[in-house]
Amino acid sequence: MGRKPPVETNYHIPGAPSLALLTDSHNCNPAPILESLALHHPALICIAGDFTYGSVPVAPSTPGILKMQESKNALDLITGCAAIAPTYISLGNHEWMLSEPDLQLISSTGAVVLDNTFTTTTVGNEKLVIGGLSSARVTDYQKWRADHPSSELYHRETYHVTTPTQPELDWLSEFTAVPGFHILLCHHPEYYTFLRDRGIDLILSGHAHGGQWRFYNPIKREWVGVFAPGQGFLPRLTSGVVDNHLVISRGLSNTTVIPRINNPTELIYIN
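Above: the chain's sequence. Below: its structure in token form.
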């Protein structure tokens, strides 16, 4: 993300509370993000995954360091968000290795971690039911760890042990049965296939990084992305609002040597 502040994109979704959507910050400098949030002061802040970057901790001079301690910018971002407004977090594919102490450290900031679970809150007179659908990378790794007990907080060389299939969906029936306005933090927009008919009022996603390179398609009369993980080339779900209830952020950082073209980083406000 460098020193450039993210573009502030505003959407109006009928019935939704005032909230900010942050995705794919990948341990970047939190200062421009927190500056924007402090000016807008949304009622809620939703971090839909990939606030960390990379693999298990790599600091050999500090044995036992937690991933979230190593990811200082990510922890500072979450701490700053929780000081501005109630903050809710779901886990993206880059959070696959987080240990229970990592999640406890995040929770100590005041933010609420939603790992395939939900909670309720009230904004004004509106009851909100907020859930977090974890990346399949997270849940598949959790199952692998359960089958391979170890005293180590992190297994090295295990990123490719599992091939993610699909997210855990069984708990969504209980989530949608609770009365209120339903908001689901779901890092992967390609999971929309599993979610579109479940009666969820608002789904918040990222992951696609806007397709990395964006160009204007004169036939469709719209801007489209070139490539997104999980969707391949010319992906359909990279940015904007779909069906008036899926909102996709282009993300807040660039994690590859390939530049973002026609695709600035983005912080979304829903009014």
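The chain has a mean pLDDT of 92.
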